[in-house]
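Hello forum,

I keep getting stuck at the same step: I have a sequence, I want structure tokens, and every attempt I make locally crashes halfway through. Rather than fight my setup again tonight, could one of you with a working pipeline run this one for me? It's a single chain of 151 residues.
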Amino acid sequence: MIDFIMSNLFWFWLAVFVIMVVIEAMTVALVSIWCGVSAFIMIFLSRTEMPFKWQLLIFLLVSAVLMLFTRPFFVKKLKLGKNKMNTDAIEGTKMKVLEPISQFQKGTVKAQNGVVWNAESADEESLSSGEICVVKSVKGNTLVVQKVKED
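Reply #2:
Ran it on my machine without issues. Output:
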């Protein structure tokens, strides 16, 4: 088996390239793509008389250099890992208190679109039924709200 691979390094590196691209397509983590780029380069180097151990060393070095120096740039440009959730849009909106909220008791609030949420007080201030509050943050499925100050 090893002899077959050594005599067909072009196909070996092509297989590594395809596998790495498929893994990257499934994960979208910008990790295995650099190994894929390196394997693509190795496809051409495999046509030379270079020994496999040197090809492997070059593959590892090119992969490491690409990952260290180009991955941070692409992660920043593609904004990976910063997926906004629908709950992020709720922050800052006003809601009506349905069930009273106190320091030790969660209550419920209703959004303008009719969705009812569990809520707790942001500043440990009590809110009574019918008051208007503003969403400060979201903790799981509970909104952290604060009473709207009327000036």
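The chain has two domains: 2-78, 86-147. If your local run keeps crashing, start a new thread with the error log.
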